[in-house]
């Protein structure tokens, strides 16, 4: 992915950020509460930094999306994009709600299976699947492999034939639209590395139809991430619908259209399309075509359901700048450093949340100037030990964390009503070097 679209929506206040997230509320005594669990209680017990996810929000989001597709009269299946957050507890929860999985590696495929997601509901995407990965996909007999090049298609045919299997495939077509997202997350333009050029899709489909061990079932596309505007979807789906008609006119069967993921979330409370509008756009493009629709949502499902809970180490005054130094850092949540991403940051204490605010740079303790979560953010004075929640951290958060600066992996917690469970204990320091070998 790439950097995210810059957005000029005015920054929402602390109260506005909390009010817009239904699994969070501010309680006068308990402070910021996720579902029925005060975040301060989690911090007191599990320490910080800690990721906390709301199971209720995850279920509600999945059902809102699936419901929007159903209400639009679409025969649709959701394959959760595992890369957004691959924790087994999250995969298992979404799987129980009915989600399949969109995987991009052997590890993600094995994770999805370990979480109980049936192979038939797994779609495999990715520009560089190795022979070994394709073999695994075939031996698990997963639902569909999205093929990203003619080279991959031929390799897959040879492997499937040697295994006596048939690969159900969908070429991932690059519709050459600009999703208007940040450079690092756009994937649907002609010069992006992803997918098959639009002009070559028909020839590739015809080749697939004639190859042993290959059954082309439809088309796939995925144009980018954090998309907050329907226009690029509309343009891409219109081009895919044209291809479906063209292929059918040539006598090919096209049963499935995989519309990819990319639906954005309102990090800054900004207006955006949401599932009903996306479903409407899909319907407008494919109604009366008798195709099964697949979707590969990642961020939209899990992003808003998670926060990164951190403690203030200290406040630091420099000439012309105020810094709030947290115990969380870019090794935990890399999105601000990597994508210029904007995340809401709110105090956990009810008193802090209504105290007078002034601009502060919110930073981590790592020796990199990029270790900055926010610049000139309006926040109250925060004493050492004060807790803050970095919002909408459920997607591309924990999965992208690293042990840089010998910082152990943060703990993870799943909140479900009044119950909360540590779903990953904080990594110990000893575990950081447990598998390292010193020769001699
Ligand atoms: C990353 C990815 C997704 C999910 O994208 P989100 O923006 O998280 O919805 C879906 N499909 C493919 C092929 C991807 O690479």
What does this structure look like?
It contains 14 helices and 23 strands. Helix 3 packs parallel to helix 4, helix 3 runs parallel beside helix 10 and helix 6 packs across helix 7. The strands form 4 sheets. Strands 4, 16, 17, 18, 19, 20, 21, 22 and 23 form a 9-stranded mixed sheet that branches. The chain is an alpha/beta fold and 440 residues long. Helix content is 31%, strand content 24%. It folds into 2 domains: 162 residues, Lyase, Ornithine Decarboxylase, Chain A, domain 1; 244 residues, TIM Barrel, CATH 3.20.20.10. The structure holds pyridoxal-5'-phosphate. Pyridoxal-5'-phosphate binds next to helix 11.
End-to-end Cα distance, whole Å, is 42 Å
**Whole-angstrom Rg:** 23 Å
* Tally of separate helices: 14
User: What is the top-level CATH class of the largest domain?
Assistant: Alpha Beta
Could you give the count of β-strands? 23
Give the name of the CATH superfamily of the largest domain.
Alanine racemase
**Largest sheet properties:** 9 strands, mixed
- CATH topology descriptor of the largest domain: TIM Barrel
Question: What's the topology here?
Answer:
Elements: H1 14-19, E1 24-27, E2 31-34, E3 37-38, H2 39-46, E4 50-54, H3 55-71, E5 76-81, H4 88-97, E6 100-103, H5 106-114, E7 122-124, H6 131-139, E8 144-147, H7 150-163, E9 167-171, E10 173-174, E11 196-197, H8 201-210, E12 214-216, E13 218-220, H9 230-249, E14 256-258, H10 274-286, E15 292-295, H11 299-302, E16 306-318, E17 321-326, H12 335-339, E18 345-347, H13 350-354, E19 358-363, E20 372-379, E21 387-390, E22 411-416, E23 419-424, H14 429-433
Parallel strand pairs: 4-22, 5-6, 5-15, 6-7, 7-8, 8-9, 9-12, 10-11, 13-14, 14-15, 17-19
Antiparallel strand pairs: 1-2, 2-3, 4-16, 16-17, 16-21, 18-21, 19-20, 22-23
Helix pairs in contact: 3-4, 3-10, 6-7, 9-10
Bound molecules: pyridoxal-5'-phosphate.
